[in-house]
Amino acid sequence: MMKILPSYAVVDSLKQHADQASAATIQSYQAETGRTERMATTAAGLTLDFSRHLISEQGLNELIKLAEQAGVEAKRTAMFAGEKINKSEGRAVLHTALRHMGDRLVMVDGEDVMPAVRDTLSRISSLCDTVHAGQWTGWSGKPVKHIVNIGIGGSYLGIKTALDGLRPYQRKDLQAHYVVNVDPADLAKTLAVIDPETTLFIICSKSFTTMETRVNAEAAKAWMLEQGMPEADSARHFIAVSNNIAKATAFGIAEENILPLWDWVGGRYSLWSAIGVMIPLMTSFAIFKRLLIGAFEMDEHFQNAPLEDNMPVIMGLLGIWYSNFFEAQSHAVLSYASDLDAFPGHLQQMDMESNGKRVTADGQPVDWQTGPVIWGGVGTNGQHAYHQLLHQGTRLIPVDIVAALESHNPVAEHQDWLFAHALAQAQALAYGCQEDQIRAEMAEKGASQAEIDMLAPQKVIPGNKPVSLLIMDKLEPETLGALIALYEHKVFVQGAIWELNSYDQFGVELGKVLGDQIFEQLTADSAVNEADAGLNQWLQRYRQKHHR
Ligand code: F6P
User: Fold this and answer.
1) Which residues form the pocket of ligand 1, taking CB atoms under 6 Å from any ligand atom?
2) Where does residue 514 rank: exposed (0-12), middle (13-18), buried (19+ CB within 10 A)?
3) Which of 353, 478, 488, 499 is catalytic?
4) Beta strands 46-49 and 467-474, pairing class
5) What does the pLDDT look like over 418-462, one tens digit per residue?
6) 268 CA from centroid of ligand 1 (Å)
7) In whole numbers, what is the pLDDT of the chain averaged over residues?
8) Is 255 a catalytic residue?
9) Crossing angle of the two packed helices 285-304 and 72-80, in degrees rounded to 10
């Protein structure tokens, strides 16, 4: 049998609270006077209402002790101080330095990284000025109109999330495109709509060794040459962002066209770095700065707010409450803001690549559950699809509902309807609709007893599904930055309590190695005889199809 959590003193007491909560209802907790005021916190333009949770206030106090006993505060200090908390790779974890707006030094290996961060920001700013002024021209002298980001994982998801979140701020004179995966259809759909003479490709790869990005970058360059780009003009069409300058120059990117990032920035935390250069290019440098400021405000809150008011700490603890004490397998993030449509994808990488781990930071097997499956979508779309399972399925799925009070697009009553439904879902999840009420309503409408007996149980919505409301005034650059940073810190808090290194990702490596080997087998000139029959049948079938 698995332990609930590492051996923190408070775990037994938490277990008792969880047993009590299992016999209680969110509705009964919510009836306590003052709970809704006490169980809310505001920071960096976001309000977290965490009152609709299956936990008593005493239980929550015990959860705060869990954070204390797990040393979350000391671990947080170590991260912000640039200690090498990514032990397996011997790296600091300093995405927070990328958005640091104060005058603090941020030291790594005895060196302040802030001058390099500021220098890169000013290079990004100059690049934006040149492109926006129409002075960055292609081989035929025409200004840039299309920007294509070639990158995957952290070199795509955060950028897409931020840029979609900033839709109202996007420039009309530039079009953004993404080439992400190695399916040739992905590249083809972009090549079909861009104009080579006015296209700027950003080869975005921290390592510059990622197969998908390398293959797509090579194909894009070949296509540009075919379209008439003189080789000598490739610097006008290709720039790169990478920590691997040697590989980027070897690919043929002019050194002055390579924006750096550093090994202390994890891929899934890199949208704040030059990896996110597409964001200011497609909006403005000022908007990008506002995004960084919002994230910085959340960093300040995370560092300074007491644990009981600390939004990332509370969200992290509540996630652990359900994962470890109630066996919840997944966590849904439902955005009642269409411009956040890409957010769940970014969260999946941020959370699942960080905390989907089976050993501790010291390499000991964990004997407790770690990161949940993260999923989600935009409201109200989900209400006409998977919300059925949220309301009446057999699994407990905690939900975050993210919503804004005001829209950038004041069309008719749309925003009123949208916000009404965000609140309605929170109410329905938490309180449901019980059988006696359904029976009474059916009887009032004249249903027969047989009908009532058959239908009433099917109509029951049990409720008691935990839901956090995360509300902002409006989805603006600052609130978007704060929102993303909030989840980054939530992931940190959970990793700290589960004793994980949230900043490596060895789990993705085997697939890469096998992918290389199987690629060799699929494309070999001579016959292939693979010992594994299950694999061999598909190798032969593919090779036959391609006449190999
Ligand atoms: O394979 C996983 C991963 O390394 C992610 O962690 C990373 O965000 C992604 O691939 C892309 O990596 P890169 O930016 O080095 O191309």
Assistant:
1) 152-155, 205-207, 210, 213, 267-268, 353, 505, 508
2) exposed
3) 353
4) antiparallel
5) 999 999 999 999 999 999 999 999 999 999 999 999 999 999 999
6) 8
7) 97
8) no
9) 140
Q: Which atom of ligand 1 is nearest to the CA of 243?
A: 15
d(CA 207, CA 24): 50
Whole-number Å distance, alpha carbon 206 to ligand 1 midpoint, is: 7
- Predicted confidence (pLDDT) at residue 411 exceeds the cutoff of 90: no
Atom of ligand 1 nearest to the CA of 155: 14
Q: Whose CA is nearest to atom 16 of ligand 1?
A: 205
Q: What is the pLDDT of residues 204-240, one digit of tens each?
A: 999 999 999 999 999 999 999 999 999 999 999 999 9
210 CA from centroid of ligand 1 (Å):
7
What are the tens digits of pLDDT across the range 292-320? 999 999 999 999 999 999 999 999 999 99
Which structure tokens are listed for 206? 């921290």
Considering only CA atoms, which residue is closest to atom 9 of ligand 1?
153
DSSP secondary structure, 24-85, as one string: S-HHHHHTSTTHHHHTEEEETTEEEE--SSS--HHHHHHHHHHHHHTTHHHHHHHHHTT---
353 given a catalytic annotation: yes
Residue 293 is inside which H or E element, if any? helix 285-304
DSSP 236: G
